[in-house]
Amino acid sequence: ESNYEYNTSLKAEALFNKPYGYLNGQEVCIGSKYKIGSSTISDTGCEALAAYNALYSLGTTDVKLSEVIYIMEQNGVLVNKGKYGGNPYSLDRVLAEYDVNSEFVDIDECTKQGTYIFSYVNQDLSDGTKTKSVHTVASYYDGDTYFVYNDENNSLAVAEYENIYDVAPNYICGLYLTR
Q1: Phi/psi at 118 (nearest 5 deg)?
Q2: Looking at residue 125, what is its pLDDT?
Q3: Strands across the sheet with 146-149, in order?
Q4: Which of 10, 46, 94, 178 ranks highest by number of CB atoms within 10 Å?
Q5: Which of helix, strand or coil describes residue 3?
Q6: Of residues 163, 172, 160, the one with CA closest to residue 120
Q7: pLDDT (tens digit, 9 = 90+) per residue, 118-176?
Q8: 3-class DSSP state for residue 161?
Q9: For residue 118, what are the contacts with CB-CB under 8 A and spacing of at least 6?
Q10: Is 14 strand, coil or helix?
């Protein structure tokens, strides 16, 4: 059974037949059990959620997480068969399937209103809440506030930041997205 067949058979998939909204907290969200490569969304699915949330932010309200994952798997976006998630430098291939234009931007260029995808290195925290790894998120910037989706793995809340350096303090790359 392919991941696509498995994912579309999940009870959660039926909920995607109506506009579901943003997905936050990859360990606890409705899509956490979806398979991506040899892993699951809860373990290494932040790039898939970033693509999904960015598409939703751009008005693609009928987007399905299972389809985003399928496109990632078919277009060589996964790293080590999904064990390490997706390659953030390849997410533009997924977005292009939805007719989204993407432009790689440096952190200092993330000042235009609109939808972004950011990748950064998590820092180890003394309380052990994060491990040092790459995390990728979608964000909408309204000119004052960055609304960040899937900011924390176990939180369903949308995070809000006024400063891009607080969103992605160890910035790797970013995409500015338009239709």
Answers
A1: -120, 140
A2: 57
A3: 101-105, 171-178, 114-121, 134-141, 146-149, 159-161
A4: 94
A5: helix
A6: 172
A7: 999 986 555 555 567 899 999 999 999 999 999 998 899 999 999 999 999 899 999 99
A8: strand
A9: 110, 136, 137, 139, 148, 167, 168, 171, 173, 174
A10: helix
Q: Is the pTM of this model over 0.70?
A: yes
Tell me the DSSP string of 15-81. Answer: HTTS-------TTTSTTTT-EETTEEHHHH-HHHHHHHHHHHHTT-TT--HHHHHHHHHHTT-BSGG
| DSSP state at residue 112 | S
Identify the three-state secondary structure at position 11: helix
CA 7 to the chain's CA centroid: 17
Per-residue pLDDT of 38-70, as tens digits, reads 999 999 999 999 999 999 999 998 899 999 999
Q: How many CB atoms lie within 10 A of CB 115?
A: 24
Chain centroid, CA 167 distance in Å: 14
